[in-house]
Design a protein that fits this description.
It contains one helix and eleven strands. By secondary structure, it is mainly beta. The strands form three sheets. The chain has a four-stranded antiparallel β-sheet with strand order 4-5-6-9, with no helix packed on it. A four-stranded antiparallel β-sheet has the order 8-7-10-11, with no helix packed on it. The chain starts with 10 loop residues before the first strand and ends with a strand.
Length: 152
């Protein structure tokens, strides 16, 4: 089995063997040996194997320290879908924060301000933005961090 055109890791391909129940992640360089026993019909069945594809997502993370405490802002899923940015935070102090969206060249796109009291942040952009790479800048409470995101 040879898998070509893996498009820069945007998906994961898995070979499913119905006879053995084994699932193997495959790429262009994967060799997969298998046994065939003519006495066992399932080992020679024409539908013994299938390949499933799963689109990969990436978590964008910014780790930093606040007064000696490790903190984190994590954007997931990334790529962003449906113009909604979702962030999960760890040890981010309560308070007012500004989140600014820039294109990859630093051009201002949009901004919002929110009061942080829990571990989640969701921002539904008021307009559709083009697919591509963007930067999210988080500021407030002595925090100034930037996270790269992808919009589909």
């Amino acid at each position: 089995i040879k898998l070509e055109n893996t498009t820069n890791g945007n998906f994961t391909a898995v070979l499913n063997d119905k006879y053995t129940g084994k699932k193997t992640t495959i790429n262009a360089a994967t060799d997969i040996p298998f046994d065939v026993n003519p006495a066992i019909a399932a080992s020679t069945a024409s539908d013994r194997f299938n390949i499933s594809f799963t689109k990969n997502t990436v978590t964008s993370v910014s780790n930093f320290s606040i007064n000696g405490t490790n903190a984190q802002i994590k954007i997931q899923p990334n790529p962003i879908r449906n113009n909604t940015i979702i962030a999960y935070t760890t040890n981010l102090p309560a308070g007012k924060y500004t989140v600014t969206l820039y294109d990859i060249n630093g051009k201002y796109i949009a901004q919002t301000t929110y009061n942080h009291y829990n571990n989640n942040f969701s921002w539904k952009l008021p307009f559709t933005i083009n697919p591509g790479n963007y930067l999210l800048k988080w500021t407030g409470n002595n925090i100034n961090t930037t996270i790269k995101i992808v919009v589909e």
